[in-house]
Amino acid sequence: RKTLNDYEWANPGQLGAGSYGVVRLAYDKYTKERFAIKIMQKSQIFKFCTIDNLKREIKIQKRMVHPNICKLYHYFEDKQNVYLVLEYAQRGNLFSVLKKANKMDESVAFWYFYQTCLAIDHLHHNQIIHRDLKPENLLVDQANNIKVCDFGWSAENSNNQIRTTFCGTVDYMAPEMVKRSTYDHRIDIWSLGVLLFELVHGYAPFQGNNQNQKLDNISKNKPIQFRPNLEFDLVDLIKNILQPNPEYRLTMPQIFDHPWMMRQYKKMN
Ligand code: ADP
Ligand code: MG
Ligand code: MG
Asked: In the sheet where 21-28 sits, what is the strand order?
């Protein structure tokens, strides 16, 4: 069993800052293989009463083995912290990748969107809802592959129809959650629609001067403004994912079979 002593910190090596601590680059002392270690301060965990969230984060991420899901290799703790040893994603998160690109061509957007869909499909097949899909929680590795991370809000569907609220960014929140009604895995599908919109625009579809205005725009089903010259089939796909009523929202198989996706698969070969 691994301990903190098996790793050496890289300098400066900070990869990100999270709500409960920092994520730092480290390497295995013996194999020199690199890892990202998420350091979570116990004082912070207890302050926010999220010990259950942390247990769930570890349990779920440990179980999920998929090329587009960030692998959790080991975890351990000392007096102050809990440490998660994660697969290292060299290019950081998709938010910073998108900021550098400003906005993406549809083929680039497809590449990231499709891989995120594969990961989400895998989670849903395993009765897991991610619940916090957004570009900050999508990592990009050296080969430009998506690695979905941050299972801190994820939930197992076995206890069906969970009710809860979020803190943090609201741009990716589904209307049924904004309205505080019951919801299920289809909230992740909504987030995929927001993601695809944001990748090709450089900003999220629901805007507002403050958080409440944004939430209002989401729940009141304000029509989405697309930029001119966006391909018709891409607009159609986004519109049909961003269906406020989850009953009418596209399902994962319908997304994979959508004409825009079909057109992109052909371009890949
Ligand atoms: P939090 O739960 O606090 O949001 P995250 O797990 O989302 O923490 O990590 C915060 C940030 O740290 C990410 O947005 C990313 O920039 C960086 N990060 C996290 N894990 C990795 C990793 N495996 N490789 C590279 N960077 C990472
Ligand atoms: Mg995060
Ligand atoms: Mg988290």
From this structure: 7-17, 21-28, 34-41, 81-87, 72-77
